[in-house]
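thoughts on both lines:
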Amino acid sequence: MSELKLTGWIELDGARLTRQDIETILRERPLDILRFGGEFFLSGNGCLARDHFGVMQGNCPKGTLTCESGITGEITPAVTDLPLEEAIITAVRLRSDEGVTALSGGVDSTLVAHIAGRECVAVGLLGSHDLRQAKHAADMLNLSCTYVEITRSDIAEALPVVIQTIPKKDPVNTGIALTQYFITRWAGEHGYHRIITGQAADEIFAGYSRYLDSKTLEEDLARDFAGLEQQAERDQSIAALHGTYLSMPYLDMRVVHAASRIPASEKVQGQRRKVPLRDVAERHIGPELAWYEKKAMQYGSGVWKELCSLARKNGYKTSVQDYIDQISRVEYGH
C-alpha cells in the first residue's frame, strides 16, 4: 500500500477516525470512503478523495473517490436528522480537539468560539471594529484570545503574495484574503494547523444585507451556497502558505441539512437576518452577542480602508482593481 497522506480530518458515521483506521479502510474496504465525513484530502493506495463540499483543496474533484481507473464514486456521508442546535454543537465539537478559533465578535464566530472552548485569535488594525468587538465578546464569555494588530506596512508587504495566491484577483476577494493571511500567519507561527471559523453562515442562514430586499431568496441562497467552493479555494490557498487550513463547522453536512429544512422566509424576518442561527446563539452566548450586527471581515478588520489608501498613494485614486492589476503585472507578469 502506498503511503497515506491526509490533510484535514475524517469521520465515519459520527466517529472520528485515526490514521490507523483510515489505513485499514483503504486496504480492506475502500468503498467505505464514500461514506466519509469531515474535511479532508486523502491520497493512498492509488486513490484520491476529497470531502463532499470540497472544503479541503486537492487534485481531484470535490466529493469524489478517484482511483487509477477514474472516478470510483461520490462521497456522500449519511446525515441524521438533527435539530439545528444539536447539529451545530456536534459539528463544532468534532472539530475542537485541536486548533485555534478565528474570532471577530460577530454571532457566527462567537458561537463557534464559545462551543469550541479553544484559544481564539482576532486580527485588525489598531482601533478596528473587529478587535474591539472580539475583545468584548471574549471578555463576556471568558474566552482566551490573542489580539493581533496589523499595520499598513504589513498589508503592503502581504499584498503581492496574496494577489499571486488567490484565484480571483478582484478587490473583494483581495480584501478578504488579506485578512485571512494575517489570521493564518499568526496561527502557523504559533504551531496551529487547524483554524476553526464561522464562515459559510451568511450563505446558509441568509446573513447578507442584500437578502433583506430579495424577492427570490431561496434561489439567491442556492446560488451563493454554490459559490462557497470558490471561497474555500481562495481561503485555503492563503492558509496553505502558512501550513494551516480552515475548518468550517457551518459547512458540516448535519448543519447544512438542518438549515435546508428551514424555509428562507424564516431566515430573514423583517429587518432581521440569520434568525434561526441567532435563536440558537441566544441560548449559548446571550442576546447581546447573538443579535449584534457586525461588518464583513475586510471592513471590520480595517484592511479594506488601508487597501484603498494604498491604491490612492500609488496613483490609483478611483480604482482598487487597477491597483491590483498593476501589482499582478509588475510582480508576476500577469
